[in-house]
Amino acid sequence: MELYMSRIENELMIDGEITSIYSIKTSQMETAKEILAFQNGELIKTVHITKLNWYKNKIKIGDLILLVLGGDRKPWKNGLIAFAKVISIDYLKESSKNYELDVELLWKLPAEMTPDDFYIYPDVKNAQNIGPSINGTPNQAIGKIDKKALFAIFAAIDNIFPGNELFIKEIIGEKNFSYIQNVPVLRNTIPKDQIEEDLLVTHGDSKGKNKNFSPKNISIDKNTYSVFELNRKFGNNLIKLDSDFQRLDVWKTYQKSELIESVLMGLPIPIFYFNEASTGELIVVDGRQRLTAFFEFIDNKFPLTELKIFSEYNSKYFKDLDPLMKSRIEDYQIQSYVIVPPTDDSIKFHIFDRVNRAGTQLNKQEIRNALYNGQITKFLKKVVNSAKFRQSTSNYFVKDTRMKDRYIVLRYMAFEYYFESLKYGYEYTDIDTLLGNAMTYFNKLEESSFDRYIDKVQKGIDNAIFYLGNDAFINKNNKSSRPINMNIFETQMYFLSRIPQSEELKQVVFKKLESLFQDKNFIDSIGSFRDGKTKIETRFKIMDKLLREVNV
Predict the structure, then answer these.
(1) What's the pLDDT tens digit per position in 520-535?
(2) How confident is the model at residue 539 (pLDDT cuts 50, 70, 90)?
(3) How many domains, in total, are found in the chain?
(4) Do residue 330 and residue 389 come from a single domain?
């Protein structure tokens, strides 16, 4: 759907037609259920909306709708949830003020967006049902949205849910996508995202660029697999798609169908990249979407659609194909490169990064999650999805899709590993090496030994809630922005995991931790060069001093 800027303030030009933009807030149970049940990539999904009254004689077929969930005591979180377009209008009786709509769902957001999510975008301020300055609006309220607000809304979405450019472009078009990059933002209210910056893979300043790797430590095999063989491996749990490490740009059915049609035509497809784990599993570095399409089609999970050459197979599942066509798919040869042991982990890290640069770039934690898959990655996923972790971090990471929450927990655990390893002569070089070494160590631990670290994490989180409540893990010198600070997280967790839970200590502990924000040495240790050895040792020595002062 290609959109072009219109001179009319509240409208857009879509395929040569003037199109208006509306928001609809609904609390109807059936309507909400249909929206929430929608999966991006489905074939046409329509939703019926009733009891509308405003704009009865103005809204028209093709208009763009922003769907917002509302209502009190409903089993959903209120907020913007999906985009749709009008496909039919029922004006009911001429005497009636009400009318009804059928809309086609275009895209559902990964999570609801509340007015707070748009606070730094002034153009969204007065967007009805959406903007942060809007007082409560009645359910089934329909409001008109101007172009500036629409682009600012998409800018907020692109910021909170990165990796969804494909969906956004399908709604607003390639030409207009650039507008969302330049919407006004209240810069002075945006806290610098220290965690996101820390996870960024910087190509020009790679940690390993000065290392002299021997060719003997780099082993990459070129292999050919049939689709049938890969599907068999997947069925035997020998291929790790690891969907929670990869990105959110999930293919739609027509994209999967296009891949299948290419195979039926005998066309070549891009090379796949795998990392072979020590257990023999193949972890997908590049090609997850394509493999998922193959496996799902063979498993009859979607029908072919929008085929151009083999149009006679549209609407057919794998089971409906004749034996020759099935064989073409199953016998298709896939070219791949496999990174095999004993390739150095830091080299694997760079291979992951380079291979994935063409798409939405993976950050460091997403790469680690694939490289060191095991009991540590399972635990990190479990703990950050727990109610207590979310409570202790004031739900700061609820909408995170890039593993920032797992990263801060891993950092804390890695420092616990580091201080224990010092007595065995461990030498600190840089934070990325430490995190990789720690994950390797945790994956090799027996369950009983690993439980010691789990207990520390759980105790730290429990005590954060007990002693600090909503003040846990934030920089008190920048309280207005309230982002979770990773260095404060790791140091407070270190401290809190070492003290008992006691009402008598409550006031003392709170004051001791609050005093850190007047300690110039501590503040300096979480500032620039925060992951240098001296800064790390400084802040944790300060925490050891606090522990002695509370006599534990």
Answers:
(1) 999 989 888 889 999 9
(2) very high
(3) 3
(4) no
Residue whose token pair is 């070492």: 498
- From CA 375, how far away is CA 453, in angstroms rounded? 12
Lowest mean pLDDT among 1-10, 94-103, 240-249: 1-10
pLDDT on residue 3:
43
Phi, psi of 487 (to 5 degrees): -70, -35
Q: pLDDT tens digits for 210-229?
A: 455 555 667 788 899 999 99
- Side-chain-side CA neighbours of 72 within 13 Å: the count stands at 3
The residue assigned the tokens 């920089």 is: 475
> 3-state SS string over 227-264?
HHHHHHHHHCCCEECCCCCCCCCCCCHHHHHHHHHHHH
Residue 85 and residue 132 in one domain: yes
Last residue of a domain, one of 326, 341, 356: 341
pTM reported for the whole predicted model: 0.55
Last residue of a domain, one of 189, 205, 238: 189
Which pLDDT value is given to residue 329?
Answer: 96
Same domain, yes or no, for 432 and 285? Answer: no
CA distances (Å), 520 to each of 13, 63, 529, 539, in order? 57, 57, 15, 11
The residues, ordered by sequence, that sit 6+ positions from 126 with a Cβ below 8 Å of its Cβ are 133, 134, 149
Q: Is the pLDDT of residue 191 over 60?
A: no
| 22 and 78 in a common domain | yes
- The whole-angstrom separation of Cα 546 and Cα 65 is 55
Is there a single domain that holds both residue 414 and residue 306? no
Domain containing residue 331: 220-341
Asked if the bond preceding 342 is cis, omega within 30° of 0, the reply is yes
